[in-house]
Amino acid sequence: MKKSQALTGMAAAIALMSFSGAASALSMTDTSSFGFGSLEFYDKEGVNDDPMEVRTRNQGLTLNGFDSSMGMLTGVSIEFDSDWSLKSLVSAHDSAGFFEHTNGYAKAESHFYIDMINPNAPVSASMTQESASCKGSGFWGASCSDSNQKTGSFDGLLDLSSLSLADFLDTVLTFDIKNVLKAEADTSDHDTWVYAYNKKNWWQGSVTVTYDYEEYTAVAEPSAVALLGLGLFGLGALRRRRQAIAA
Known about the structure:
By secondary structure, the chain is an alpha+beta fold. The chain is built from 2 helices and 11 strands; from the N terminus they run αβββββββββββα. Helices cover 17% and strands 58% of the residues. A hairpin with a 5-residue loop joins strand 5 (99-118) and strand 6. The radius of gyration is 36 Å and the shape is rod-shaped.
């Protein structure tokens, strides 16, 4: 009788354990876009050594943190995808004498930064550079111009190795999207004026965060239901046997 009681109790215990929470691995993402249009400006160089021209553009961006009520967070990744364009244009002229020579050089730069402010992570940055140069000569003045344009992409992953998963729970991720543009002119003629243009300098893209997590739900498997039924049946039979002996 003791053996049958032990088997019956074990069946009931296994059945109850089978009703405990089961983990389910899931992923969710959130994406936000950014974009800068074209901004045209120039740097002028002549008899004086003027400093280069710089323009800085910023845009804020937010993404949702992970809602801890959804489950247990197991992994985080942040990816960015973007496209850019940049054009450098040089224009030089000299009209000081009967027969003149002129030359000019221009450099345009575009620097990209995606800086996660909360939680704080290292900045990702890239720089693209385009240059143009020209030479000219002529009677009663000389002039020349040239341009160069390129398009490309700036993609990658943010380095999150310095952060913990807890930094992403029940918060809002904030980013500073920054674009630094530069234009610089130069010449080897002391009486030539050179204009260096930074043009068609758009940059647009998106940032995506992916959360891997485990969602807990109560699951009753068919085998667990059968074991529970067996345990209850055994307990009922044991009770009836005890009642019959007592009578």
